[in-house]
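User: Please predict the structure of the protein below. I'd like the answer in structure-token form so I can feed it into my own downstream comparison script.

Assistant: Understood. Taking the following sequence of 153 residues as input:
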Amino acid sequence: MYGIKIDRVPGTNEDSVIEVEGSNPKISGTFRKKPDDGMLQLFIYDPHKKRYWPQNPQNIEWKVNKWYGNVRMGGNPPYEATVIVALVPPSGQVMSAYYREMGILSEKFKKDVGENSDAFVKFKARSIYWKAIPGELPKDFVKLGKVVLRRVK
């Protein structure tokens, strides 16, 4: 319907592992028909532990039929992450927005009280501080493709 594709390194497919440097690699692609605002989203997915992390909203250049966005890869190199590109219905968009808002508020709290303070250490242990959402992506999310990244630096 939308003709959304991920840009790939020549000679790779969605099971190939792409090496990247840094913790915020850029993912990009193309589309034939522009999806509604907020519908196109990226997720980091851990297939071994069946959990995922919503990523920041994507940028769409509708005049040239391109989309792009950065993903946040945690962990120390070498670290692998599967990035899923999906069309997300309004209920999922609310969930992703709430997840990001709680993360932003958590970062503000960390800055206000200090990362090593007792208050933040207790908060981090008991809160949703950038914790993964358990399970598979919801069934009403339309998975369009994936790319497997390995952070080497």
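That's the full token string. The chain is about 20% helix and 35% strand.
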